[in-house]
């Protein structure tokens, strides 16, 4: 399970995701193996929890 | 002091360059010859020598990844069993089988290392100029027989190999020479360049015939001994070296600091002594902390850590800026994180 990190308050860019099993912060970088796992999880039809407002 | 000034040193047959201390020096067997990082198993940032039951795709000692199609079939521990390492070494990676599991066709159990493309680009794999390489390592097992492993890329080329453990519970050095692969696509930048798998048991789906390159993804050699097939069986390994050439040379003992820094490109841990690695005493709702890495990472890393905070400190930290050189994280209220990991492993 994953949760989105709030977007940047000024640029609104996506800043990453949180892996809820260990609260790790994962960058949006396709060279990162954890982000690759997240993409696979998304491809399976899953949806991350929304970011805290 | 005498000085020798010559242009060429030849062997007694006036042929190739003379051997010096058992090796013929060339561009590939001097400093930096070993493409394996932490081959002497001295660095264990994640577990500090503790035994772990690895999950599929999880790392154990630094740079050494494990794959397991079934959970809880083996443990990995630096210096498991506390036996004496081979002469010249102080550490080894120890695998212990947790049960007597009969592998099915689609099972695989492995310890391995993914070598970054930058570090093997000169091997010219995938080209007609591909270089021959030699793998060497020390192994000690409670079992005897033929064991296996694989060298390959990110899933489409594999060279299965075998080695024989002749005596139980005895360190033996093994050497496998592998011709360079002139086919396939091999990455030469910051992704998977070359992968070494040491088989602990695999079924027919992931096992290949030893001794040739195949366009397949194998994890072990056909017929290899299954370590996970015997409860309590052990496989200890150290002194792993992968070098250019047709013969193994002495293991390249790099300075500890050098080995540690090589590992830190893939994993950097701070606060392993439980000190406050990243700390904020300011009581605002959100505090920001910058972590400048000691070593530039292979890619933007995943940040994780254990929370140790005061009221409100249990807020999750979020890395808000990721680069290969630093991370910028936030705390909720005051709190500290220790240890903290920046993981950019392959």
Largest sheet of chain A: 3 strands, antiparallel
Spatially, the strands of the biggest sheet of chain B line up as 1-2-5-10-7-8-12
Number of domains of chain B: 2
Percent of sequence in beta strands of chain A: 15-25%
Number of helices of chain A: 1
Using a beta-carbon cutoff below 8 angstroms, give the protein chain pair with the largest interface and the number of residues from each chain.
A-B, 19 and 22 residues
Class by alpha and beta content of chain B: mainly beta
Compute the separation of the termini of chain A in Å: 19 Å
What is the fold named in CATH at topology level of the largest domain in chain B? Jelly Rolls
Number of helices of chain B: 1
Q: Beta-strand percentage of chain B?
A: 35-45%
Q: What does the overall shape of chain A look like?
A: globular
**What is the strand tally of chain A?**
3
Can you put this structure into words, describing what you see?
The complex is a heterodimer of chains A (53) and B (346). Chain A has 53 residues and is an alpha+beta fold. Helices cover 21% and strands 17% of the residues of chain A. Chain A has one helix spanning 33-43; strands at residues 2-4, 17-19, 24-26. Chain A has a three-stranded antiparallel sheet, covered by helices on one side. The two termini of chain A are 19 Å apart. The model of chain A has no long low-confidence stretch (mean pLDDT 89). Chain B is mainly β and 346 residues long. Chain B has two domains: 58-255, Jelly Rolls; 265-343, no CATH class. Chain B is built from one helix and 21 strands. Chain B has a seven-stranded antiparallel sheet, with no helix packed on it. In chain B, strands 3-4-14-6-9 form a five-stranded antiparallel sheet, with no helix packed on it. In chain B, strands 15, 16, 18 and 21 form a four-stranded antiparallel sheet that branches. Chain B is globular. Chain A binds chain B through residues 5-6, 8, 15-16, 18-19, 22-27, 29, 31-35, and chain B through 190-191, 298-304, 307, 316-322, 329, 343-346.
């Amino acid at each position: 399970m994953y949760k989105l990190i709030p977007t940047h308050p000024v640029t609104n860019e996506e800043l990453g995701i949180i892996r809820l099993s260990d609260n790790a912060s994962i960058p949006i970088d396709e060279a990162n193996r954890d982000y690759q796992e997240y993409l696979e999880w998304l491809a399976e039809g899953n949806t991350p929890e929304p970011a805290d407002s | 002091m005498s000085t020798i000034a010559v242009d060429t040193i030849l062997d007694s047959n006036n042929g190739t360059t003379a051997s010096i201390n058992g090796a013929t020096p060339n561009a590939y067997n001097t400093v930096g010859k070993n493409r394996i990082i932490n081959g002497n198993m001295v660095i264990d940032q994640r577990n500090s020598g503790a035994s772990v039951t690895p999950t599929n795709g999880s790392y154990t000692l630094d740079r050494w990844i494990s794959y397991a199609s079934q959970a809880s079939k083996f443990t990995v521990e630096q210096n498991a069993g506390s036996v004496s390492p081979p002469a010249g070494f102080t550490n080894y990676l120890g695998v212990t089988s947790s049960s007597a599991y009969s592998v099915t066709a689609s099972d695989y159990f492995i310890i391995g290392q993914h070598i970054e493309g930058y570090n093997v680009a000169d091997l010219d794999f995938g080209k007609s100029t591909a270089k021959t390489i030699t793998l060497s390592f020390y192994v000690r097992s409670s079992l005897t027989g033929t064991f296996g492993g694989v060298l390959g890329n990110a899933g489409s080329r594999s060279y299965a190999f075998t080695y024989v453990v002749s005596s139980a519970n005895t360190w033996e050095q093994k050497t496998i020479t592998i011709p360079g692969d002139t086919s396939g696509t091999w990455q030469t930048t910051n992704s998977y360049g070359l992968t070494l798998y040491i088989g602990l048991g695999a079924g027919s789906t992931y096992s290949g015939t030893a001794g040739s390159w195949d366009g397949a993804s194998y994890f072990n050699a056909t017929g290899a001994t299954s370590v996970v097939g015997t409860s309590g069986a052990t496989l200890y390994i150290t002194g792993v070296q992968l070098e250019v050439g047709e013969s193994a040379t002495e293991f390249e003992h790099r300075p500890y600091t050098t080995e540690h820094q090589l590992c830190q490109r893939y994993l950097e841990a701070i606060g392993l002594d439980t000190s406050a690695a990243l700390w904020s005493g300011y009581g605002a709702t959100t505090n920001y902390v910058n972590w400048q890495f000691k070593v530039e990472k292979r890619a933007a890393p995943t940040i994780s850590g254990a929370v140790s905070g005061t009221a409100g400190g249990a807020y999750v930290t979020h890395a808000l800026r990721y680069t290969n050189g630093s991370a910028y994280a936030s705390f909720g209220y005051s709190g500290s994180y220790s240890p903290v990991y920046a993981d950019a492993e392959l």
